[in-house]
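User: Could you walk me through two proteins back to back? I'd like the raw sequence and the structure tokens for each, with a short line separating them so I can tell where one ends and the next begins.

Assistant: Of course. Protein one, sequence then structure:
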Amino acid sequence: MTERDRKRLRAAFAAYLPLPVNLEPTLGEALARVLQNPGSLIRPEIVLEISRAYGLSETHATDLAIGLEYFHTASLLFDDLPSMDDAFERRGIACVHLEFGDAGAILTALALINRAYALTWRAVGASVPDRQSRALSYVERNLGVDGLLNGQSMDLHYAMLPHDRQTTEQIAMGKTVSLIRLTLVLPAIMGGAPESELQILERIALYSGLSYQVVDDLKDVIQNSDETGKTASRDLSLDRPNIALVIGIGGAIERLTRLINLGDRMLRRLVAMRPSIGFLETLRYELGEEALQITQSANRDAVGRTA
């Protein structure tokens, strides 16, 4: 991914939801604020690269990349609400609901979702008919009651569920893995990837999604808000799923190491089949570096407690 591509994605994130001149000012300000603060944009970068590997046009790949990122951003706005995670900070600035109210944050999220569907449908519509139906079903499965919504509901009602690894990872499958599946697998479906490669991409999405969730959980336990750019220590205070709280920091680090190793095995198989997927090795390296930093932070924290 070149710096030119990254600049183009940042510009597209800001521009692909055009705001009409007669838009109600509060909603307009809230949307403008979100669109000008896109975060890392790692997911749309992956979508563009996967799309290139499977022959999608740049135009439709960008539509899909920004559409999926709008879905992700909307999920964060919902997550931060007082009725959910009651967060104060996201991406280094105050959460939207704190400046524009709960209703403002909800309407902003719905505007993003509405536009996300339009962009996703436009991208999928360029595929051949048999791929279209499979792609749309895949979107529905991962965003709907079988995926993201179910994971979010389990997260909110975690107090009534077993606080074990199985339940915690089931929730992560819905909340985190679902969106990563869309990022990795959906453009491959649209590009007509062989079934063998789709199955491997599914496994990579699973291991990567769970890995990222473990890293996020460890950050919530170990780091402060200045380090993470979002409200920290919320999982313990709200009784929300966190693998580091369930199996301990050491157990979470061991689990993270195993998930990364399993993902590496799948990635090597896929790159042997399709060398143009090799860019994922760079992302794997970045995940490994973040895991190393978390491990070092955990070790320093443990030393501090015993000193």
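----
Protein two, same layout:
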Amino acid sequence: MNSIIDIRNIHKSFGSVKAVKGISLSVSNGEMFGLVGPDGAGKTTTIRMLCGLISPNEGELIILGKDISKNKKTIQKSIGYLSQKFSLYGDLTVDENIEFFAEIHNIKDYDERRNELLDFTRLKEFRSRPADKLSGGMKQKLALACSLIHKPKILFLDEPTTGVDPVSRRDFWKILSGLIKEGITIFMSTPYLDEAERCNRVALMNKGEIIALDTPGKIKDMLGKKTLEIVCSPVRKAYEIIKHQTGFEAQMFGDRVDIIIDDVDKDYLTLEKLLKDNSIELYDNRIVTPSLENVFIHLIRQEESAYVDDKKVKNKK
């Protein structure tokens, strides 16, 4: 597959804050690519650079085979962009918002395309409703329809389902799957690791750097260890004890604790005894397939540990 997006050693700073620190990656035509990370990781800055809204301090951005620094207007005609914040006109109806964006892109005969998008996003019965009167999920669908009116080759989505209810999130993903079938390349950012599992490939991003880049399956294989999930009470106490009194890495998720271990039989017996000795009731345990969230937390902790060790070495010199 041909590369449609090339990011080459991109750096971006805002004053003393280094938002993006030399990232490089390529996205293939027709791919759904996910940029995943917490707030402040550099995801929005990266997408805004890819859309030509801000310029990098260093590096190259090649979109559709062209350098965006020299061909910004040409490239922008072939891409769609859905930002984090709802940026449509609240006093205009659904129909009028789509019409407005069609005119911005100099699309003259847009009625048929608008009807297709309204069917696609299931907004046809709401076409006369002002945007301000739509639910959060419906607003995102309308924003998506507006970004697709000119039939872009690449769609950039910046955390499109943040703040959207679970049902609307599911509907939104069905729509994105349909777009992939139409051959549109999707480059999206998300803080949700479960959403990233749906992408063809993902880049895990933290503090302006990419710490892993591959298919979700191959990134999960990077852990190289077993993940033991336990259900116990009190769970917070169990997490703190495992974290501070053993050499195991513990990750707490609601009413369960995931523990990264090497030897299932030996390590479980050690943990079972420790929890019982501390009056913690153990209700259930099982070995689970590592999630992207397991791997992401593991990689971040490895980075933090390496940073602390490096600092100690420097301080000794």
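Residues 221-316 form a domain with the Alpha-Beta Plaits fold (CATH 3.30.70.980).

Let me know if you want the two compared in more detail.
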